[in-house]
Design goal:
The protein is about 35% helix and about 25% strand. It has about 260 residues and is an alpha/beta fold. The protein folds into two domains: about 10-85 and about 160-180 and about 190-260, P-loop containing nucleotide triphosphate hydrolases (Rossmann fold, 3-Layer(aba) Sandwich), CATH 3.40.50.300; about 95-160, no CATH class. It has a six-stranded mixed β-sheet with strand order 5-6-7-3-8-9, sandwiched between helices. It has a three-stranded antiparallel β-sheet with strand order 2-1-4, covered by helices on one side. A hairpin with a 4-residue loop joins strand 8 and strand 9 (about 220-225). Helix 6 (about 200-205) crosses helix 8. The longest helix has 19 residues, at about 240-260.
Length: about 260
């Protein structure tokens, strides 16, 4: 997997964009209204907001699991197989399969044998620090290790974009911090673009260069914040005045979003 550094925000080529996207369920439940979002190559974008604001709906729309009621989502150059990796809140691993077999799954669904992609699978496991656990089963892993397997599975096909739906929400704080650190290191190594759903102000500031703050009923974007701190980020950034200032700005925007809920 190639190493890549993201260009400055205003110089990044577009991966995809959403234009005036609405999503209505059952004719009267407005999950998302008028959402527009530009996603640049190398972006780390967090969708931050209260429950019911359409964060997960936006990910499902981008992944083509559901379709907009109005508006459109466009991929630069058109979307192709392998352009997208997805990490869910739960690792969703197959309990009867080994770690390596779970990571192989995206290739298997495309008809590729394990032997033909073994090197890709082992490279992905090495990047998440689990190459020695390739023959282990999910029941033998900790929660954090299971999530690492899920991340390896999402990135094994070298996708242009990785969608992450609150992947660390169920983990303890120490494990969560460690995986936040690891995720930024992985992103730097493979040069991917990430859209990350979270309820955590602190997580969004640590990880992101852009934070899209959303309000509920109907789900909509109310603010976009830029976190201009350079990467790599570490514990020194977590305790810096700059981090605290960005957290205050994100917290203020989140409170505004909660107050705007209709």
């Amino acid at each position: 997997m190639p190493t890549a550094s993201a260009a400055p925000l205003d110089q990044r080529s577009e991966v995809l964009w959403m234009e005036g996207v609405d999503k209505t369920f059952n004719g009267n439940v407005h999950a998302l209204k008028g959402m527009s979002l530009r996603v640049g190559e190398g972006d780390f974008i967090s969708l931050l907001g209260p429950s019911g604001c359409g964060k997960s709906t936006a990910l499902r729309l981008i992944s083509d699991l559901i379709h907009p009621t109005r508006g459109r989502i466009t991929w630069a150059g058109g979307q192709h197989a392998g352009d997208l990796g997805v990490v869910f809140q739960e690792p969703t691993l197959m309990p009867w399969a080994t770690v390596a077999q779970n990571v192989w799954l995206p290739f298997r669904l495309r008809g590729k044998t394990y032997t033909s992609v073994r090197d890709d699978v082992l490279e992905a496991l090495k990047l998440v620090g689990l190459e020695k656990f390739q023959n282990a089963y999910p029941r033998e892993l900790s929660g954090g290790m299971k999530m690492r397997v899920s991340i390896a599975r999402a990135m094994v096909t070298h996708p242009r974009l990785i969608l992450m739906d609150e992947p660390f929400a169920a983990l303890d704080e120490i494990t969560r911090f460690r995986l936040n650190d690891d995720l930024l290191e992985l992103k730097d190594k493979i040069g991917c673009t990430v859209i990350f759903v979270t309820h955590s102000v602190f997580e969004s500031v640590f990880l992101s260069d852009r934070i899209v703050v959303m309000a509920a009923r109907p789900g909509r974007v109310i603010r976009e914040l830029t976190v201009d701190a350079p990467y790599p980020r570490d514990d020194a950034f977590r305790t810096s005045p700059e981090y605290a200032a960005h957290c205050r700005a994100a917290s203020d925007a989140l409170h505004e979003a909660m107050e705007q809920a209709a």
